[in-house]
Amino acid sequence: MRTLAYDCDVLVIGGGIVGLSTAYAITRAAPGTRVTVLEKEPGPARHQTGRNSGVIHSGIYYRPGSLKARYAVRGAAEMVKFCAEYGIAHAVTGKLIVATERAELPRLHALVQRGRENGIPVRELGAAQIAEYEPEVRGLAAIHVGTTGVCDFVGVARQLAEASGAEIRYGARVERVDRRAELGVAVRTTRGDVVRGRVLVNCAGLYCDEVARLTGDEPEVRIVPFRGEYYSLARPELVRGLVYPVPDPAFPFLGVHLTRGIDGGVHIGPNAVPALAREGYGWGVVRPREIGGTVAWPGVWRMARRHWRYGAGELRRSVSRGAFTEAVRRLLPAVTSDDLVPAAAGVRAQAVLRDGRLVDDFLIREGVRAVHVLNAPSPAATAALPIGREVGRRVLGVLGAV
């Protein structure tokens, strides 16, 4: 056993943008480090990375000093630079955050202050000035954030995979993890392959808590999947760029917003409803074992009791196109239900604590010969390069100590 032949130095589970950025960061910081990435799908970025609105977030929403704030601000600039360097489709469009009710004005002003604390330039707009940016949008006041943009995150993930020099194994679903403190980790896939490494990195997204438990570490959170449902706008000429409502600070969700993507189409959404499977991209996808694991976590019931009114509104918009249209019309009065064309949904991997609180920051924890990324929903794609460096720094620290 002690003459074990390692297949790699670092074994990364998960081929989304965070896992691939981690592999890229490790090989850049420590050339010669052998990295293997295991991804259960036949290609990269098939879940959270490839099923979001494609927005490069500015970082304006996040608590000053938090990882989300620091990494989003830094990551947005780096993502634009990365896309430009490698010829990946992107655009810095700016966005509006619009207050449509008087009760939202204090929260809008608080966002202005938060943006300034996070080092983000913002412009405050009155009702008449909104039309300078979005002629069809209506509101009482707004702020314009110039550093927001859009990009092809799947293209970014592919480029990270190529540039990292890592061995990427697709179709490699992890079945078992055997970790031994004095030796390292061995991972068996459902194909029967066994891959041995010195250190394991868990970037499994929707399954990160399960992978942590397979490794022998208790993550102290559970992933609760929330499906985000989108529509495409049949009349994309109604929207020039990006338009967001004022978010509710009690939730990590940003509300139904309008996004003109790099392809020129406009996506509307998402709302956020509990999914009936971790990859539950529609109401018809039901996995009883996964539902059982979710409802067995005490935090789920405490979260539901605390936020049932918010959840009821999200469910209403999920089952009623009219209700969804009503939410959109608060920002874009010209839209009708006929303008909304169903589009592909995404699922957010949201970590929930035992007491029912939603984890509101990126969460990275270390175990013996392991580093686990346990909460990396939006804006993780924007912040992927700084997240990858931080995870890589910790991994190399563990590697140097064994």
Your description of this structure?
There is one protein chain. The protein is α+β, with helices and mostly antiparallel strands and 402 residues long. 32% of the residues lie in helices and 27% in strands. It has ten helices and 22 strands. The strands form four sheets. Strands 1, 2, 9, 10, 11, 12, 21 and 22 form an eight-stranded mixed β-sheet that branches. An eight-stranded mixed β-sheet has the order 6-7-5-15-16-17-14-19, with helices on both faces. The chain has a three-stranded antiparallel β-sheet with strand order 3-8-4. Helix 1 runs parallel beside helix 5, helix 1 (17-29) packs across helix 10 (384-401) and helix 2 packs across helix 10 (384-401). The protein starts with 7 loop residues before the first strand and ends with a helix. 50% of the residues are buried. The mean pLDDT is 95.
How many beta strands in the DSSP annotation? Answer: 22
Distance between the termini: 16 Å
- How would you sum up the global shape? globular
What radius of gyration results from the CA coordinates? Answer: 21 Å
Taking the sheet with the most strands, its summary is: 8 strands, mixed
Oligomer: single chain
- Output the structural class: alpha+beta
Strand content: 25-35%
The helix tally amounts to 10
Q: Assign a percent range to the helix content.
A: 25-40%
Question: Overall pLDDT, averaged?
Answer: 95
Low-confidence stretches: none
